[in-house]
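Q: Got a minute? One more chain.
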Amino acid sequence: MKKYGIYYLGISLLMLLLVETSCKKEEAQAPIIVPSTNYIKYNGMTAPISMGILTNNGSAGSNSFNTDLYLYNGFTLHESNNQMDSLSGTGNLLYFSMFSSQGEKLDSGDYNFDPDYTLVPKTFAAGVVFLNYNIQIGSGIMSVVDGVVSVISNDTIYEINFSGYDEEGSVVSMHYKGELKYFDESKKGL
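A: Always. Here it is, folded:
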């Protein structure tokens, strides 16, 4: 039961982040645009992704940090005081709640889905796919329930691939190569 509580807490925090509109927002500087070879494939459809965000949410236990990964296209990123504030608009997004031995970057290697939430490095405990998602309406969400996220880190450039399944058994895959905008969320609200 504990694992489901963590999962729903993570999803709730993600949704709060996506729909937060009451704070004063500063528009983010120009996003890092990468070639259109970055994509999400789902149920026979290919959707582009062009930007990435990495957030350090702090220690998740011994030798482990909760590092969230957002890969998206079409949304506008809003920042406030050098912190990720929210996303707005309509677009595609693939989100993973990952665990790494470092908070400020992802370790290279394969991250396996961990339904038991052991929080050990090179696992991910939650994944969500948003396709043609309108934040105001809130439709087009699928939860990832199995798979592997492969990460190759070369200084500031990441190459990330995913292959797995959603809760309906549909195949989800993804490829992204480019930079990730980093936010240290571990000190947010302190």
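A: The longest strand covers residues 141-154.
Q: Perfect, thanks.
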